[in-house]
Fold this sequence. Notes:
The chain is of the alpha/beta class and 578 residues long. The protein has 22 helices and 21 strands.
Amino acid sequence: MTNFEGVAPTLSTALEKRGYTKLTPVQSAVLEADANGQDLLVSAQTGSGKTVAFGLAIAPEVLGDEEKLPRAAEPIALVVAPTRELALQVNNELQWLYGDAGAQFATCVGGMDMRKERRSLTQGAHIVVGTPGRLRDHIERGYLDMSALRTVVLDEADEMLDLGFREDLEFILGAAPQDRRTLMFSATVPKPIANLAKEYQKDAVRISTVTEREQHTDIEYRALQVAPNDRDNAIINALRFYEAQNAIIFCATREMVKHLSARLGNRGFAVVSLSGELTQNERNQALQSMRNGRARVCVATDVAARGIDLPNLDLVIHADLPNNAETLLHRSGRTGRAGRKGVCTLIVPHTRRRIASRLLSFAKIKAEWGPAPSASEIHDKDRERILNGADLAEPMAEDDQPLVEALLEKYSPEAIAAAYLRSVKQGLPAPEELLQSSPDQEGERRPRNNIENGVWFRLNVGRKHNAEPRWLLPMICRAGHITKRDIGSIRIFDADSRFELAPHLAEKFMETIKVHGTGEQSITITRIDGNPERGRRPAHKRGRSGGEFREGGGGHRKGGRDRRDGRPPRHHKSERSE
């Protein structure tokens, strides 16, 4: 029998049944002598086993010296979590940990039937797990009696403050007995958390098992640079290349979750989505599909995915770049948990490489930069997986031998192998052919060669609209999904402007413009056949002639007033997008 020092015998048995052979650092830390019975402020890396850690830490208040709990009355322990998913997940973890002790549980989470929750509370519960808003509702209605409470746990305290639950938390802590024990678990301890701890904890013992912003050593980071309109295709290829047992894709908006879920579903991926507009039942079904293997890809927003723990999650994809380093680390921490290796990929449009580099630098993450997996690389990977497949290495079952012999007698080995390949490939979505993205390195400025036989295009804005290369150039790049190096001369006239592209880009550029527009209200781009200056001369203004701008040639044009803010003219309102 495994001996877990400092753990109650009943809980030690539960750990052993669960397959534990040793405790994680945070689980051991909360059992140290100086932490026993004290208020705790704990920061630990995502996936470090902190749910079990606070389950072990509250054992003295929940069990005391007993191995079995008496019939439940008023709650003696309360756990507060930021989201419904995390609260239900915490409840499941504590149930197996305290199952042999006879603990009764009640959950109080938004989106669930409040009448059922009230009945559970009335019938009695030793441990209550819930979300801040719903717990406050039950307290205010008199359904949740806090008088016998011995300990309160705030899980993911920093997330709860980020989600605006400070007032609810203060209400809950204020309603709890003064002599309670308070444990706060938080990925980071920013000033608001420190202030909350100072106000509601007594001489809290500070425990930290991870250096702030430390790169997770079990996660391999890859930054995939792509053309902006190739993001969906790059995600498809990343999923196909890694063939993870479970993968999660993070998006910035609900709309992106809908779009990407539909696109992946149409391509043959078993996909579910998580976003704030789903009902609790729909969320539960989505997570259950991931856990039982009916789905392998989850597309989610940050808020919906906070705190969820999916088994065998080997791949995290950032479809949209996170806003800060903390979010990057939190998202990425969904994989590489409990000693399991994981891969984290960032989909980086070449127009946002500088932003992605800064984000990785702030998070102290070293990522391998490169293009998204190509179709040929995926085919090579499929070949490798098929040749080394575990099903081919398994010995033949004795009952199957007669059928195997019959197959070999009727069909050639080549025909049988071909049928096997068709069967395997039938369930594999086809990879996408990707556009070539700009290979420019961060901060590197390269002179561009003159474009020969360039194709010219017209913009319907000119000098009288305050047009200037400083905002025309990035607008053209965003609109056509090209880079500055692809653009030759830019010529600005009174009423319109002209720019030059390499011949091999012209058709693709116009196709992109027709589908997506220019991204600027009222601005249009049309192709010019022949001489770009036919029937037109650069206008003269204040004695200066209109001029030509070339990228890499100083970024200045002659003639016209220079707008110092670098923005498009006011009557051409920008509709900037990523």
